[in-house]
Write a sequence for this structure.
């Protein structure tokens, strides 16, 4: 199971980095994440790119984000529905978001 989750997460990160839509993007849409977040600009909440910059180089960043999505975290974030593997896939897609070019 752990190997499968790692594979899915890696595959989703590659798809997100290539710009194609995939399962993580479907989960982001179905959980209405874009109600408050966008890929590159601040809306009601930080952009996915800003989150990626915040967590860049941090060990366990994907797990931290997935846990925050699962519990709601201290930032009053809405809980996100999904399995642990799905939440990690969302986290991987967010972490793969590149900042806007100036």
């Amino acid at each position: 199971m752990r190997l499968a989750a790692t594979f899915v997460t890696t595959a989703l990160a590659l798809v997100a980095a290539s710009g194609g839509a995939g399962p993580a993007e479907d989960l982001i849409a179905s959980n209405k994440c874009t109600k408050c977040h966008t890929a590159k600009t601040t809306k009601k909440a930080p952009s996915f790119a800003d989150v990626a910059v915040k967590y860049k180089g941090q060990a366990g960043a994907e797990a931290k984000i997935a846990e925050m999505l699962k519990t709601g975290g201290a930032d009053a974030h809405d809980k996100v529905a999904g399995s642990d593997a799905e939440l990690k896939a969302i986290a991987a897609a967010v972490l793969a978001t590149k900042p806007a070019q100036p």
